[in-house]
Structure prediction request, 282 residues.
Amino acid sequence: MRVILSRKGFDSTIGGYPSPIINGTPFSLPIPDSEDEIRYSDLRFNGKNYLEIMQGLGIETYLEGGLRKPLNENSACHLDPDLRFDIPDNRICPNDWKGSLGQISQAQRHLENQGVGIGDLFLFFGWFRETENKDGKIIYKRNLEYPNGFHLIYGYLRIGEIIKTADQDCPAWLANHPHNSREDVRSDPSNAIYLAKEKPAKEADQAEFGIFPFSEKLILTKTGESKSRWDKKKLKGLEGLKITYHSKTSWKKDYFQSAGRGQEFVIEENKKAVNWALKFFQ
Prediction:
């Protein structure tokens, strides 16, 4: 089983704000994409739509394509990976739904070149900050250890099926998936949709996709450092293994310098990597 660290959600250059952790649940903000059909106002979490939550956090504009745009009821987003059943108001063919991830172009070719396939495990990480409830409003919480937030592993998906949309038909319940709903994306020869395995993983005794409850053990960033400087103690077991987009020089004396480019960091297939990943399910 290969383990892939997959960067998703808002970051410093796309979106421009950390995703919030609300009542112990990581709430990954889908990146903005004006070409997609789904709007932030179409998605819900704990009885509120995403637009309301984002505006409550003080997010009035966001970064897309190097430009800052106003956040409003028509702002569209790229809901991918799709890991929570209850996010959209109405699922198509809800009984058939399962977790999914789409990938295209260079990032997809990278996964293919690394031999990523059935049974491999995506661990999704992104930029997060904790929140608190103040006077009935959810606001970002001050944290002196991580004043600008941290990189957090927040979700997972173990691959059960890969659909190459240019050559294969998608099931009906994927009609609204951003890697299927747009003709220009669907017809691209590189476009792929990864579907989760249906049965629980024996190794983890967990569902094959989902969101982790927030825990300190899921924070990658080293205390007091910028978010891209990861705590080597949190990576124990990965030393000496190849991680794409990284090299031996990524392992500094006091931290691991995570790459600023690339979405998918594929870890060398090795039992040590599997054991490292399975710790997050315990």
